[in-house]
Request: fold
Amino acid sequence: IPCVPWQSQTSGQYQRRVHGYMPIFITMSAQTTANQTMGLVDEKLGKRKKGHYGPPMGSRCIIFVDDLNMPAREEYGAQPPIELLRQSIDQGGWYDTNDCHFRNLCDIQYVAAMGPPGGGRNPITDRFLRHMATCSITPFADETLELIFTTIMDWHLDKDFTQGVKVLSQKLVQATLELYRTAIKNLLPTPAKSHYTFNLRDFSKIIQGVCMSKAAIYDTPDKFVRLWVHEAFRVFADRLIDDTDVGSFLEWTRDMTEKHFKLKFDQVFKRIDTNGDGEVNTPDEIRSLMFGFYMDKKGQIYDEVQDLQEMRLRWEGFLEEFNQISRKPMKIVLFQYALEHASRIARVLRQPGGNVMLVGVGGSGKQSLSRLGSYACGYDVESIELTKTYSVENWHEDLVRILTKAGTGSTPLVFLLTDTQKKEKVPTAWPLV
Reply:
């Protein structure tokens, strides 16, 4: 099944709800091995009789394999984890690697999801595919995307928003769709810009960001449009590496605002016209457009930053409080670029499933701002201590400790991992399943 943003999550949620079925979830990666795959299945199945293993009597086991075609090929072109799954279907089980007896697997079925080959994904052997009923999902038409996201926006704006804001629902989706199509057409990946890859997840993240608004705060079309532009810049422009690309994206956003919302872009954003020329047409000016939960004392309202000086004082207060309680106080200067990045980090962390990849040269403040942004959100930060004798076993122990704290603690947790802590290639997808 070609990958779509909600494909894996939807399959997993459906399997959990069906009575009489026990789900097992496996996420493949390029480092996944046959032994890891076997271990994930064997540890969930119980013994029925000698040599026979399966789910509790009266139920069936559904094994959901995500990113099926990610495992790397070995010397002769085979993918060992997939060959193991094929053997379990062909022969009804596999051999135990400890005592070499055959383990018959009873009452199990497979559901798998994968993207088209390419970009690290490999073709799947026909010997495995012949056992599967293949369902291919074609790219969605614009009308379908518009219907999906307009329904979401209509549901959100029905929460006591003013009529002037409610009528923007379909216009916002149309503007986002055209901006998304323009970005994937013009912002193409190159060796220097290999991360310029956009998909429907980026489209949905803009809608997700807009849905953080509340009716009492966003009562005018102008402010709602400023929120939409901010979310578009956070999702797309934060990935761009030079002012030329950011300037182009700003022009596209200007065109979409005037085309779909019928509003004058410079009039809507006149507050951030820092050079006083009557136009907001430079990356430096649009940088001043920021939204966040941190301006609200209770941290519940996602609102626009009206006063940069007040914002600076708020973050300096967070830094002072952090230094008072931390065993490793941070001595950093919160200039505007630092405030912008801290705001971006805090925004992502407050979203469901929010994960951040920070790219920059060493010593640029990535760790410090991550800790500060986490503290501003009220989150704890956990990391690992790398030593000369640090091994994969230590990594697994740290993961158990961190995940246990995340699952049993009362405070949300941020796991901070840096590139210098990557000692060797470790199949992180396996222990996290």
